[in-house]
Q: What sequence folds into this?
């Protein structure tokens, strides 16, 4: 029996995917549920499992764009499994490599040619210009560089010579292309502005120093910065609901819940999984969810549903060393908070110059529905919560807030 394998729908509104890579070769014997290909949608990279055991016939190639529901391979389920282990893609490459080497044509020995020569007068002039005779086209007999050629010669102003100047093209994945389109869309269709502030991270540093090991021993996750920022954002969004809204046609759609998208770097590029109902989560809940989503993104297991939605985004360029940036809104959302690296800097505190760990924060927002007063107020509220975490985020009870 010949089974036709069709492209399954990876999620709502997705009508096309791209064959990123076949993990098997035409004619291989595959087992049921074995991963046979990686497919890119505009939101994620997913594995395509075999629907049955048998010999596979491929009907698409790496890089092909295929519609959802299109037949991409056939599986002959009546075929029997070969004795012993079937050769993998890598095994076949190793077997074929020696054959290819054996059939290579002998390389002809390179010929060398004499470089241009110059008259004594020309050599002197060129030496003063710090030029070589081989870089000048001679008009004399047999290409000899004359005095006149040397006088007219102009030294190179930094033109690269002798170095590697190669280039290569590679096809962008569907995910990367979609990210690019969304970034351009955000720049072109929103009235995006960015406001900045700075946060004294000393109080959070002190809390983490005191409770980090106990927190990890109790809950199995680290007490990171993301839980503090997420809870500060939840509070600020409740104070300024316009920032937790988006444009829906001619209306402003507001939410009474907070779904925080967190930008993470995965093997296939930027991914933005969502922490659902962050307003109901504790420090432990947020850190556990961040860890779970980050691991799934890193391992390529993140699903479209886990990246769909979100009412506000947090991105942390500080992990890569960014000091300051203007993050781009993640449409159709109206706001995104950018975290940056933490630097020990001198600040004025109670009339004294002290050195504290400081972070610049940036809020990019859609000015069509968020006014300057709301955007600045939102960022100030985030700053206040981060600089007074015990009072504002922990209700003056650290151990209860951290569930210790």
A:
């Amino acid at each position: 029996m010949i089974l036709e394998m069709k492209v399954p729908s990876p999620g709502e509104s997705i009508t096309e995917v791209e064959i990123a890579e076949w993990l098997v070769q035409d004619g291989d014997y595959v087992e049921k549920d074995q991963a046979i290909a990686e497919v890119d949608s505009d939101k994620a990279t997913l594995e395509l499992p075999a629907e049955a055991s048998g010999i596979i016939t491929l009907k698409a190639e790496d890089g092909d764009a295929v519609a959802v529901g299109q037949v991409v391979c056939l599986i002959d389920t009546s075929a029997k499994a070969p004795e012993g282990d079937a050769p993998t893609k890598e095994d076949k490459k190793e077997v074929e490599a020696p054959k290819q080497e054996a059939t290579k044509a002998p390389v002809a020995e390179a010929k060398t040619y004499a470089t241009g020569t110059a008259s004594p007068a020309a050599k002197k002039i060129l030496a003063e210009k710090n030029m070589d005779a081989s870089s000048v086209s001679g008009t004399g007999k047999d290409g000899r560089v004359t005095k006149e050629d040397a006088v007219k010669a102009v030294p190179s102003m930094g033109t690269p010579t002798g170095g590697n100047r190669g280039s290569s093209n590679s096809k962008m994945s569907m995910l990367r292309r979609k990210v690019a389109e969304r970034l351009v869309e955000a720049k072109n269709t929103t009235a995006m502005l960015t406001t900045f502030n700075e946060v004294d991270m000393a109080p959070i540093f002190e809390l983490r120093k005191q409770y980090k090991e106990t927190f990890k021993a109790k809950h199995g996750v680290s007490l990171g910065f993301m839980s503090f920022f997420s809870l500060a954002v939840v509070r600020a969004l409740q104070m300024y609901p316009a920032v937790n809204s988006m444009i829906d046609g001619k209306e402003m759609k507001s939410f009474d819940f907070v779904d925080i998208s967190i930008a993470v770097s995965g093997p296939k590029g930027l991914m933005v999984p969502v922490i659902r109902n962050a307003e109901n989560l504790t420090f432990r809940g947020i850190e556990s969810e961040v860890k779970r989503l980050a691991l799934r993104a890193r391992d390529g297991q993140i699903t479209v549903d886990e990246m769909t939605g979100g009412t506000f985004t947090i991105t942390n360029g500080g992990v890569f060393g960014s000091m300051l940036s203007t993050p781009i809104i993640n449409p159709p959302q109206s706001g995104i908070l950018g975290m940056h690296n933490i630097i020990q800097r001198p600040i004025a505190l109670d009339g004294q110059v002290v050195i504290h760990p400081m972070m610049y924060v940036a809020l990019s927002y859609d000015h069509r529905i968020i006014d300057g007063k709301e955007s600045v107020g939102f960022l100030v509220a985030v700053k206040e919560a981060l600089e007074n975490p015990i009072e504002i985020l922990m209700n003056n009870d650290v151990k209860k807030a951290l569930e210790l």
Observations:
- The longest helix spans residues 202-219.
- The longest strand covers residues 352-366.
- Residues 95-115 have pLDDT under 50 and may be disordered.
- The CA atoms of residues 21 and 62 lie 5 Å apart.
